[in-house]
Amino acid sequence: MKFKIQPTDVTFGAIVSGIHLSQLTSDLLDDIKEAFLKYALLIFPGQNLSSKEQVEFAKIFGEIEYLVDNMETIPLSNRSSNGRIMSDEEEQIKLLKGNEIWHTDSSYMPRASKASVLSAKIIPDFGGQTEWADARAAYDSLEKHIKEKIDTLNATHNYFVSQAKIGHQVKVGAAYGFYEGKPPIYPLVKIHPETNRPALYVGRHACNIIGMPEDEAEELLLFLNAQIVKSQFVWQHSWSPGDIAIWDNRCLLHRARPFDSSKERLMMHTRIRGNEISETALNYR
Questions:
Q1: Residue 281 within a domain
Q2: What is each CA distance from 39 to 7, 11, 42, in whole angstroms?
Q3: To pair with 259 at 20 to 30 A between CA atoms, which of 113, 194, 237, 283?
Q4: Predicted structure pTM score
Q5: Domain with 167 in it
Q6: Residue 189 near residue 199 (C-beta atoms within 8 A)
Q7: 127 assigned to some structural domain
Q8: Residue 130, SS3 per DSSP
Q9: Residue 67 lies in a domain
Q10: Domain-embedded: residue 279
Q11: Which of 73, 130, 123 is nearest to 269 (CA)?
Q12: What element of type H or E holds 92?
C-alpha cells in the first residue's frame, strides 16, 4: 500500500491520500509517524472511520486522554442527545464557542495533550472550517531580544479564565478541565520532545506570566499569539464528511470557524495524552 503526501503552501501540514487508515499495515506506521513529526498536521480526506477505528488510529501515537466518562472519542456537536439543535445560551454551545479562539488542547490541565484527532461526520453548507497555526515558525521569526526575554518565562493556563473572557462563567466540575486545584504553569517556549524545535506555547488559555505585572503580561501574550496567527503561518481546512485530521498540540494552535448555528455540525474528537515528562506542568512535577 502506497500513500501520497502533498504539503500545504504554508510552513506545516500535509494532505495524505492513497491510504485507508482502517487497513494500515505495520510497515506503514513508521512512515506515518515520521510524516506527523515532519508536518505537525496530517489531513486524510474521505476516510469515513468508525469511532472504534478512529481510536485505533489515535493509539498509534500514544495513550488516549479520556475527556468525558472514560469515553475515548467524544462528539462535538450543536445537536443535543434528544435531537434538538441547541441555542447559543446553552452550556455546551458556550464551550464550543470557546473553541473558535486560538488554543492548544489541554494546556489547562496538569498534563497537556500531545496530539488531537478530529473527524467530520455532519458539515454545514457554510463555515465550520478548522484552522491551524505554526507556533514553531512564529518563534523562529521573532527578533533575538524578544526570544531572550521569553525563553525563561512561564505562564499559567486556566480554562476558567479563558471562558470568562467570552462571558461564560463556569463552576468547578461543570465539564472536563474545570477542576478544583492550582492551574498549571508551562514555559512560554516549549522545546518539542521529539524534534527539539522550540515553539511558542501560548493560546487563549495562557492568562498570566509568572513574576510579571498583569497588564504587561497581557500585552506580551497578545503579542505572541498575534505572531503565531500571521497569515503565512496559518492553514485552513474546509471539511467534507469522512475527513479526519491529526495534529501536534506541542507546536500548533488551532481554532474552529463560525457557522450557521441553526444547521447541524458533528465532529468526533479524540485526544492523545501528553508525555509524562515533557507535557507535565512545571508546578505539578
A1: no
A2: 8, 8, 7
A3: 113
A4: 0.97
A5: 4-274
A6: yes
A7: yes
A8: strand
A9: yes
A10: no
A11: 73
A12: helix 91-98
